[in-house]
C-alpha cells in the first residue's frame, strides 16, 4: 500500500456506492478481484480507499465520488482518529480563511514539503487567534494527513473554509450523536437573543460544540471552556471560523467548576447548557467556594452550581441565560437557593419550552433568565413566568419554533423594558416575588398560570357540540353493514417482494433527502411514521442541504401511493390522499406505488392491514417489532375483483377517519366543559 494512503471500512464502502453493507459482503465473496484488506481486524477489516474507488469505477458501481464524500472518508480513515484529522484540517482551513491564495502555493509542494512546512505555519495562526494556551494540538509533521489536507483545500476552493469545517464537524457530531449533548440551533438562537443584542463579551462555561457562542453576536470577545479536551479543540476551530476576525476567541479545556480557566473574568453575558443531574460536580471539594453567593447547592443540585458559577462571571447588570431541567424549578433541595435568587432580584424570568425543543427531548425544558443585581440598586419585585405550551392556536407538540421564539422574545422585551406585562391565562404572568417565597419556592410556570378561557366561551362549546352531533350522525351512516358469513378464503397469494420484482409496484424506503434550495414549505414537508399511524397531514421537516450546495433527493409520495410503517407491530397501511401528495417520506416508512393497470391501491392497502398477515411478516426483538414489508402477502385476484374489495376497504377507511374526528371533537368538548366549569365561564345549569 502506498505511504499515506487512506483506509476505509465496509460501512464506508457502502456509503460511497450508495448500497447496504450486505451488498459489500456479497462483492467480497463473489469477486476475486475485490481489493484485499490492508488493516483493521478480522471482524472489521479496512481497505485502501483509492483501490476501492478504482474497483467500484471499473465495475460501473461508482461513476464518480462526490468530493464531500471523499473528504469525509479521508477524515474518517485517519490513523489517529477523526478528532485528530479535524484538528489538522481545521488548522489548514484557518490558514486558507486568512489568505485564500495560500492554497495555490501549497498545491505545488511535494508531499514531504507539504507535511514539513505546515505545522509551524498552523501553530503561528493558532496562537495569533487563540493565544499561547490554546487547546489545538498539532504534530511536528503531517505525513499521515497529506491526502486529507489536499482534499480539504480543494473542497474549500468552492465551498469556503468555514463551510468546509462546518461540514466535517457536523459529520463527526452526527456520527457520534450519543456521545454529545448538543443544543439545537433554534433554542441556541433564542438564548442568545434573550442575552441581549451584540453584548461586548460572552462566556459559555460548558460549551460543548459551541452552538450557543456561534449563535451569539459578541462584539469584542467570546470565552469557552469544555471538559473534553478533544471537543474543546474542535470547538475552538469552529468558533474561530464562525466569528468575525476582530472578535477575540479564548477556549480552554477542563472542568469549569473544579478548574475554572477564567477565574478573574467578568463578561456582559453568559450562555450555558450545563450537564443535568450530575452528582459528581464537586460538592465535597467546593464547600467553601466564594461562588456560592446565593447558598451552597445540594449534591443533587448541580444545575444551581452551574448557575451560580455563571452569575459569578458577569458584571453587575450582566445577563445569564441557562437551559435547565424542569425539576430544578421545584426540587425541595434547591428551594433555599431559589429563594435567595428571588429575594435579591437575580432571577428575572422562567420560560417553559415545548417538549422536544432540546435534549433530553422527552422533557419540556426551562430557560432561566438572570441578571446580576446592582449592589446599589433596589431589587426588582416581580418574576415573569411563560409557558410556550399555551401559545394560542398551537398544540404543544406541533408549535412551530418560530412562533415559540417570537412569543418568548416579545414578552421578555416588554417585561424587561416596563417591569411587567399584562397577564395572559395559560401563557404568561407577572408574579410578585413575595407570593413565591413559601415552603416550596416553586417557579414552574404552569403551576402559576390559570388555564386559558375556552375560546369563545359557552358559544364556542355549543358549536363544538353541534359539529360532534353531525359527525356522530355521519359515523352511524357510514358504519359498515354486517357482512354475509362465508368460509375462510383459500386464494393463491403472492408477496409484496414478488410484486416489486415483477414490476407490479415500486417499493422505496423513506428517510433520506435534504431540503430544496427554493426553501418553500412544501419542499420541506415530511410524512412521518407518526403521521401515517394517526392519519394526519405531514408534520416533519427535511434537514438542510450540504454546505457544497448539493441536494439529496428525498422520496416524494404521490396520490394513490400506499405507505406502510415498519416499527411498532401495528397493522397499518394508508393510501396517500391529495393533501399529503408531494411530501417527502420519513424514516421507518415504506412507499408502495402500484401499477394501477394491474393492482388496485385500496385493495393492496386493505390486505396489508390484516393481523395475521402482519404477524407472519414481522420479526420480534426484546424491545421492538419490525415489519418486513417484502414478506407481506396479497391475494392473486383479477383487477375487477380487486376493485370490489378496494371499494369496501375505502369505505372502511372513511368510517375510521370519521371516528377519529368524533373522538377529537368529543375530547375538545369534554375538556372545554371541565375548564369552563372550573374557571366560572360556564354555569352548571
Automatic annotation (TrEMBL):
Annotated source species: Actinacidiphila bryophytorum
Domain DNA methylase adenine-specific: 163-388
UniProt-listed GO biological process terms: DNA restriction-modification system; methylation
Methyltransferase listed as a keyword: yes
One Pfam family it belongs to: N6_Mtase
Listed name of the protein: N-6 DNA Methylase
Database matches in InterPro entries: DNA_methylase_A-5, Restrct_endonuc_typeI_TRD_sf, SAM-dependent_MTases_sf, Type-I_RE_MTase_Subunit
CDD domains named in the record: AdoMet_MTases
Top-level taxon: Bacteria
GO MF terms, alphabetically ordered: DNA binding; N-methyltransferase activity
Keywords: DNA-binding, Methyltransferase, Restriction system, Transferase
Amino acid at each position: 500500500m502506498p505511504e499515506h494512503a487512506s483506509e476505509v471500512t465496509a460501512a464506508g464502502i457502502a456509503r460511497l456506492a450508495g448500497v447496504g453493507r450486505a451488498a459489500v459482503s456479497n462483492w467480497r465473496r463473489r469477486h476475486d478481484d475485490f481489493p484485499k484488506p490492508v488493516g483493521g481486524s478480522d471482524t472489521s477489516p479496512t481497505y485502501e480507499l483509492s483501490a476501492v474507488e478504482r474497483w467500484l469505477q471499473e465495475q460501473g458501481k461508482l461513476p464518480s465520488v462526490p468530493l464531500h464524500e471523499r473528504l469525509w472518508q479521508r477524515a474518517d480513515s485517519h490513523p489517529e482518529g477523526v478528532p485528530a484529522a479535524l484538528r489538522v484540517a481545521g488548522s489548514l482551513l484557518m490558514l486558507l480563511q486568512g489568505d485564500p491564495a495560500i492554497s495555490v502555493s501549497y498545491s505545488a509542494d511535494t508531499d514531504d514539503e507539504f507535511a514539513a512546512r505546515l505545522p509551524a505555519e498552523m501553530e503561528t495562526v493558532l496562537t495569533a487567534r487563540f493565544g499561547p494556551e490554546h487547546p489545538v494540538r498539532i504534530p511536528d509533521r503531517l505525513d499521515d494527513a497529506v491526502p486529507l489536507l489536499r482534499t480539504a483545500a480543494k473542497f474549500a476552493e468552492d465551498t469556503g473554509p468555514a463551510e468546509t469545517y462546518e461540514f466535517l464537524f457536523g459529520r463527526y457530531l452526527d456520527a457520534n450523536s450519543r456521545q454529545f449533548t448538543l443544543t439545537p440551533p433554534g433554542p441556541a438562537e433564542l438564548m442568545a437573543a434573550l442575552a441581549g443584542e451584540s453584548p461586548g463579551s460572552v462566556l459559555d462555561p460548558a460549551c460543548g460544540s459551541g452552538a450557543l457562542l456561534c449563535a451569539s453576536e459578541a462584539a469584542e470577545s467570546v470565552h469557552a471552556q469544555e471538559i473534553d479536551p478533544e471537543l474543546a479543540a474542535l470547538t475552538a476551530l469552529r468558533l474561530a471560523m464562525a466569528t468575525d476576525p476582530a472578535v477575540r476567541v479564548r477556549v480552554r479545556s477542563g472542568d469549569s467548576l473544579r478548574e475554572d480557566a477564567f477565574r478573574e473574568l467578568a463578561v456582559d453575558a453568559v450562555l450555558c447548557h450545563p450537564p443535568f443531574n450530575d452528582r459528581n460536580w464537586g460538592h465535597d471539594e467546593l464547600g467553601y467556594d466564594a461562588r456560592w453567593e446565593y447558598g451552597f447547592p445540594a449534591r443533587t443540585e448541580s444545575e444551581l452550581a452551574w448557575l451560580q458559577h455563571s452569575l459569578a462571571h458577569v458584571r453587575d447588570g450582566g445577563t445569564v441565560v441557562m437551559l435547565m431541567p424542569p425539576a430544578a424549578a421545584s426540587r425541595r433541595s434547591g428551594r433555599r437557593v431559589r429563594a435567595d435568587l428571588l429575594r435579591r432580584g437575580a432571577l428575572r424570568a422562567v420560560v417553559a419550552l415545548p417538549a422536544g425543543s432540546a435534549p433530553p427531548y422527552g422533557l419540556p425544558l426551562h430557560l432561566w433568565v438572570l441578571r446580576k443585581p446592582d449592589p446599589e440598586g433596589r431589587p426588582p419585585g416581580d418574576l415573569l413566568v411563560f409557558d410556550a405550551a399555551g401559545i394560542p392556536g398551537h398544540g404543544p407538540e406541533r408549535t412551530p419554533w418560530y412562533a415559540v421564539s417570537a412569543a418568548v422574545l416579545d414578552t421578555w422585551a416588554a417585561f424587561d423594558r416596563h417591569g411587567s406585562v399584562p397577564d395572559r391565562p395559560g401563557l404568561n404572568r407577572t408574579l410578585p416575588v413575595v407570593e413565591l417565597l413559601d415552603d416550596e419556592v416553586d417557579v414552574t410556570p404552569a403551576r402559576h398560570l390559570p388555564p386559558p378561557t375556552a375560546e369563545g366561551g359557552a358559544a364556542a362549546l355549543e358549536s363544538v357540540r353541534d359539529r360532534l352531533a353531525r359527525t356522530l350522525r355521519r359515523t352511524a351512516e357510514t358504519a359498515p353493514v354486517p357482512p354475509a358469513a362465508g368460509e375462510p378464503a383459500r386464494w393463491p397469494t403472492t408477496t409484496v417482494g414478488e410484486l416489486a420484482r415483477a414490476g407490479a409496484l415500486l417499493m422505496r424506503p423513506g428517510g433520506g433527502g435534504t431540503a430544496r434550495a427554493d426553501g418553500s414549505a412544501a419542499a420541506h414537508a415530511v410524512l412521518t411514521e407518526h403521521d401515517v399511524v394517526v392519519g394526519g397531514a405531514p408534520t416533519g421537516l427535511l434537514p438542510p442541504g450540504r454546505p457544497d450546495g448539493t441536494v439529496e433527493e428525498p422520496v416524494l409520495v404521490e396520490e394513490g401511493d400506499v405507505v406502510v410503517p415498519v416499527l411498532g407491530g401495528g397493522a397499518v397501511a394508508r393510501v396517500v390522499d391529495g393533501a399529503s401528495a408531494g411530501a417527502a417520506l420519513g424514516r421507518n416508512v415504506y412507499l408502495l406505488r402500484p401499477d394501477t393497470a394491474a393492482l388496485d391501491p385500496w385493495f393492496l392497502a386493505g390486505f396489508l392491514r390484516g393481523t395475521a398477515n402482519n404477524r407472519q411478516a414481522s420479526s420480534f426483538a426484546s424491545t421492538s417489532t419490525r415489519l418486513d414489508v417484502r414478506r407481506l402477502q396479497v391475494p392473486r385476484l383479477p383487477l375487477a375483483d380487486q376493485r370490489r374489495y378496494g371499494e369496501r376497504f375505502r369505505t372502511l377507511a372513511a368510517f375510521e377517519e370519521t371516528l377519529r374526528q368524533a373522538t377529537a371533537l368529543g375530547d375538545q368538548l369534554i375538556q372545554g366543559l371541565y375548564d369552563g366549569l372550573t374557571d366560572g365561564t360556564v354555569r352548571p345549569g
